[in-house]
Design a protein that fits this description.
homodimer; D-Maltodextrin-Binding Protein, domain 2; Alpha-Beta Plaits; globular
Chain lengths: 280, 280
């Protein structure tokens, strides 16, 4: 059975999200497989070792997942063929019997810490914050470590590593959701409710982004996202990730993208895929 | 003498950059003061404890410094009154006598690791990467830690913690520069070569970003940066940071910004300041 890669180890939010996605979409044709680093997951797709990857692309609070955007933009052979918007709930995890006022160090992935910044400043102003590679690794370090440690992470991580959830739902923003994309070597056929993603670099001239957006305005194409990233070759040059409603085989989208391609110095179609849930 | 805050401890790139900036601008009216966390620096400005803060706002490879952008957008009383573009050179630091093939763990700030991702994948594929709070903290942990540790960091960090530079200039991209801004409670008077920064949220309607950019196009104002960040209240809503050439008291800028303010649901002037070096 083909495999779908995610950022492990077991107990990460990615694993929780993948289970929700597979349940929602009623897909039983793939086996989940954990990878230890984001580039490894996507390289396994380009190398044909796995069929698909399920990776986060943006969070409603912390913003884009830069590593994923950069690989989509600059590496060949990766296309988006699906998406899912999953709510994220952060919890404070510790060994059974840990008193809240005995906590000296809190570990998590930098995004986990970022999502609870106000909570931590209010309730744990003196505690040391230690960024680690994943929320699951944070939970594992707490499970194996000395007293006084706590982790910010998922309920799945608490179960996996035998920790207690000593505070739940500690994220600053109740509306904390992450958008995941399914990445494969091809995109998806039209379903009638689709989205299309592109990335481009406008010419390095005043008003060039404006002139690209003008194209979408003329064809009355609804953009659901616009995100800038540095072009990496110089400060002040950007590439833009744009998502729109519609499939690349729709006549309007097809015509508009032909024009966008003509007006940009770098253009890449990232794929069309079924709309994965209203971005409310 | 008033103080200018930066992200410490001593030996960070921020300290190196601040020294370069103070030398370049021939300013002797401020004493540098290290802070241990980014929010503390900016809160010290709003509270009047220090006169200015010198903080990174974007890197040519890793992109925006989210914490700084979010505080500028959402907290009152902070304005940009200066900028400086500083080249960043990453080095591999270790205890004297460390053999390259004896390195088992490499520590750095997540941006330091990100800036050397390809180098690390090529030369240290098996090594554990450990993100910590700053490049200086990484150097300190290496200086105090067991054998086999190395840090990615500045030459200043090597000197401060008595480490050897065992590989220099290991960043993936030769064009690795960081733009720093000087943040104060007020912005700067016109010099004739100025920039102005704003942040706004376009209405949640198709084409609304396009309609704001149209305003700059009509007044022929040159935008030097456009950067999106999540609005935080829901996935798919964005705020936009825009920098332009000119001072807010220039007639064209003043008229255009009055119109932008009218067309946006959220608008904040972040300040006008002397152009701090060509963004080539």
């Amino acid at each position: 059975m083909p495999e779908i890669g995610y950022l492990g180890p077991e107990g990460t939010f990615s694993q929780e999200a993948l289970e929700i996605y597979l349940g929602r979409s009623d897909r039983t044709d793939y086996t989940p497989r954990a990878f230890s680093a984001m580039p490894d997951i996507l390289h396994a797709v380009t190398d044909g070792k796995i069929g698909e990857a399920f990776v986060p692309i943006e969070n409603s609070i912390e913003g884009p997942v830069n590593e994923v955007l950069d690989m989509l933009a600059f590496e060949d052979g990766l296309m988006i063929n699906g998406e899912a918007v999953i709510p994220i709930k952060q919890n404070l995890l510790a060994l059974k019997g840990t008193a809240v006022n005995g906590i000296t160090t809190i570990l998590s992935h930098p995004q986990g810490i970022g999502q609870c910044r106000n909570y931590l400043a209010s309730y744990f102003p003196q505690v040391m914050l230690k960024p680690v590679a994943s929320t699951a690794q944070a939970a594992r370090e707490v499970a194996c470590g000395e007293a006084g440690l706590a982790a910010i992470g998922s309920g799945a991580a608490a179960r996996k590593y035998g920790l207690d959830i000593i505070r739940n739902g500690i994220q600053d923003n109740g509306n904390n959701t992450t958008r995941f994309v399914v990445i494969s070597r091809h995109d998806s056929a039209m379903t009638g409710d689709d989205k299309t993603s592109i990335v481009f670099s406008a010419d390095d001239k005043p008003g060039s982004l404006y002139r690209v957006l003008e194209i979408f305005n003329i064809w009355e194409i609804n953009l659901t996202k616009i995100e800038s990233r540095p072009a990496k070759d110089q400060l002040g040059k950007y590439i833009f990730f744009v998502d729109m409603n519609g499939h690349r085989e729709d006549e309007d989208i097809s015509d508009a993208l032909r024009m966008v391609r003509r007006k940009t110095s770098f253009f890449k179609l990232l794929g069309s895929y079924k709309n994965g849930g209203a971005v409310k």
